[in-house]
Design brief:
The structure is a homodimer.
Chain A: E1 4-11, E2 14-22, E3 29-36, E4 45-51, H1 58-64, H2 68-74, E5 77-81, H3 119-134, E6 137-146, H4 149-160, E7 165-171, H5 181-191, H6 203-208, E8 217-221, H7 227-231, H8 233-243, E9 248-252, H9 259-277
Parallel strand pairs in A: 4-5, 4-6, 6-7, 7-8, 8-9
Antiparallel strand pairs in A: 1-2, 2-3, 3-5
Chain lengths: 279, 279
């Protein structure tokens, strides 16, 4: 449970830190960032998890996400984990969409991935314990969001853990790994060819199979290069309508898949989570 | 005067672009970024120049500066040039603080720098013409700011061009190259050993020699590693008091030299410029 501080910087009145620890789950060192707003001594603050997309580390959103002003205003801790185990001993793939930087928030069952690629358990179990033990985090008030592969992570982790997150949102999420090339490559590799086992890692399938969220906010750019072939937002829209699950799925005209898009709507997402986390 | 578009992304309702052109002044291709907020057809918008610090390109502030929300709100174009000429044929130095990434906003007179390292003329003459010709920029309403070496650039360019900029601010500027190791190395190299010739590239000396700004905003972190040895904010404070030049020089407790500091106060700087540019 001990963590090591890589760096801390004062920003927007609070502290932006980067930390590392030896993960029992992945068997590797893991790095993550946490922004803690200025707060009264002894106070515990709500937590917003942000899961990143393919190729990212904690650093992308930490540098480009433009979340700190809003988190400082609303008094919310912002946590950004890495997207996979790292290190010379960790297996990898030549593609950007599998292996390092592409953990897909699953617990791999296939070799050579099973030993290290356990991002589901890392995000669901180990990192929350570390957060609770080392930061002024009110674990009764957690929200979760993410981008692309991390949007998939946020949706599926929240759907599988009813009641844990008071608020769930996503930026341009992969909504159904069962129905896109990124998902097919990753889940075949990590979980194996039996597609029935993929359903717990597929937001649309989880909802079809009965999982529900009380509410959902999704922003998706209309000129996102990955919309048609990979993200397929309409599948999420359809299943939410079919089962009558409340979801604000906003198609944002002219926006792409980049942090220029994410940062545009970040403050709105933080405010949306704050409303639910502080209710 | 033709420019090439490297990329454009919609962000905060406007367009964040990156552009390149063949510079007649530096004899090299030069890259810069421009954010143009959403605006009425035919409208011309005020311009805020941002000059970057040592080691930076246009990209650092473009990605980490958190200026777009404020520029969109106030309807201000944000321009971020590179900090030096680039390319295999351009001379360089082994240090991070001289040569590429360290143009210091001077016109070099010494060899081998004189042919390419002409960032003063590039920022004062060539890039404004390109901006006026290619963007909806109201060149009667310009403000300028910058960070560290770029804060030095903003102050000295504004002081040497009275009336051109309606507003001038800086983040942790080098206030007197005559009195710090970064300045001594760069100006000896670019301008030569005659320190009298350095005075036009020294904000404190320019003010001592009679140049004035109507107003000035400076933010400086108190735990900035470069404060004591390089930046020496107190020299600017002293000269402004001595000549009775209005200047808000704010020492910001606990902040460092990074973009985590800059981004914290960026929205306030943009609002401060907006007030003067739109008056």
């Amino acid at each position: 449970m001990t963590i090591e501080t890589v760096s801390t910087c004062k920003s927007h009145g609070g502290t932006q830190g980067v930390y590392t620890h030896a993960s029992a789950v992945t068997g590797t060192p893991m790095t993550f960032s946490v922004f803690v707003p200025d707060h009264a001594p002894g106070a515990k603050l709500p937590v917003l998890w942000y899961l990143s997309g393919l190729t990212c580390t904690h650093a992308n959103v930490t540098e480009k996400g433009e979340f700190r002003a809003a988190c400082a205003e609303h008094g919310i801790i912002f946590v950004a984990p890495d997207t996979s185990p790292r290190g010379d001993d960790v297996p990898d793939d030549e593609g950007y969409d599998f292996g390092k930087g592409a953990g897909f928030y699953v617990d791999a069952t296939q070799e050579p991935w099973a030993a290290n690629f356990r991002m589901r358990s890392y995000i669901e179990q180990e990192l929350p314990e570390i957060l609770a033990a080392n930061f002024p985090a009110d674990m009764e008030r957690q929200g979760i969001t993410g981008h692309s592969m991390g949007g998939h992570g946020a949706l599926t982790i929240s759907l599988r853990n009813p009641g844990r997150f008071r608020s769930t949102s996503a930026f341009s999420p992969i909504v159904s790994p069962l129905n896109c090339p990124w998902g097919e490559k990753a889940l075949t590799g990590y979980i194996g060819a039996d597609r029935a086992k993929w359903r717990e890692y597929d937001a649309v399938a989880l909802i079809e199979d009965g999982a529900r969220l009380p509410d959902l906010l999704v922003d998706q750019g209309t000129t996102d290069n990955f919309l048609e072939g990979q993200l397929k937002t309409h599948l999420l829209d359809h299943v939410c309508r079919n089962v009558d699950m409340r979801a604000a799925i906003r198609m944002q005209e002219g926006y792409d898949h980049s942090y220029y898009f994410i940062s545009t709507f970040m403050a709105e997402h933080v405010a949306w989570h704050a409303e639910r986390l502080k209710a």
